[in-house]
Write a structure and sequence with these properties.
Keywords: Membrane, Transmembrane, Transmembrane helix. With 203 residues, this protein is mainly α. The chain has 7 helices and 2 strands; from the N terminus they run αββαααααα. The chain has a two-stranded antiparallel ribbon. The chain is elongated, with a radius of gyration of 27 Å.
Length: 203
Amino acid sequence: MDPNRHEHHDEDFGAMDASMISSTSPYQPTTERVPDRRPFVAGFILDMQYVKSLSGVLKMIEIVLDIIVAICIGTIGLCSTSCSAASFLQFVCISAMIVTTGIFIIYAFGLQQKIAIINWPLTDFINCALFTLLYFIGSCFMAARAITDSGKAATAFGFLAFILYAMNSWRSYTVFRVDCMKRQSPVSHIEGVDENPETRDLA
């Protein structure tokens, strides 16, 4: 027998098997969407969907600005009349960096789902609103007292951080409102209309 003939027969049978699978058959090849999560360290899972979201990006930029403001204030030599303003703005930026980093880590690793006793959307909104106000006061105070280049740079980055925290305040307020609606309306929660990584599984 011709071995090539057997090979052609095998190919024909394979093509027939593939054609016999109709579009309504339950044995269709499926391509499920892989969740946008990646393993990290010690069993924790990094939620890349939150990291890439608007809230996650805003928080990362805020943390960078907090560090820059702290560095600018730290490089001020003789503060003379701006010592009180520099000390206050330094307190604001360091406090904002610690709190914002903590909230970012909680959301990035999905820990808000495990610590459900705390209303995290409300906590995030209060944090953003508070540091928006403090950065505005501190930057205005610093702008009136700064006499060195480092002090002026700290003032500029302080106002930039104020704008970012104000944007994040509005964003977190929107998330908080959605979370309140989801808690009051269990039907919408069951239907899964809310796909925001910050508010899902909180109700």
